[in-house]
Amino acid sequence: MTDSANTKRRTPSRPVFRVGTAPADPAALFVRQNAVPRSFSPGRPIEQRRLLLAGELVPWQGRTVDLFSPVEIRTPTGLVHLRLGSRPEMGGRDALRMLAAARKAFDEGRGAWASAPLERRISALSEFACRLASLKEPIVRTLMWEIAKPHAELEDEFDRTIESIGRMIEIARKRERAARIVKREKGILGLIRDEPRGVALCAGPYNYPLFETFGLVVPALLAGNAVIVKPPRIGALFFDLLLEALAAAFPPGAIQVLSGDGRAVLEPLMKSGGIDVFAFIGSLAVADRLINLHPKKTRLRTLLGLGAKNAAVILPDADLDTAVHECLLGALAFNGQRCAALKILFVHKDVRAAVLDRLIAETAEVGIGMPWTPGVRITPLADPARIPYLRALVRNAVSRGAEIVNANGGRTAGSIFFPTILDPVGRRMTVYKEEQFGPLIPIVPFNRAAEPVAYLRESSFGQQVSLFTADFKTLGPLIEAASPHVSRINLNAKCQRGPDLFPFTGKKDSARGDFSASEILRTFSDRTVVAARDAASGRALLGKFLSSTGRLDIPEGTKR
Ligand code: G3H
Question: Which of 75, 98, 221, 277 is most exposed by smallest CB count within 10 Å?
Answer without folding.
Answer: 75
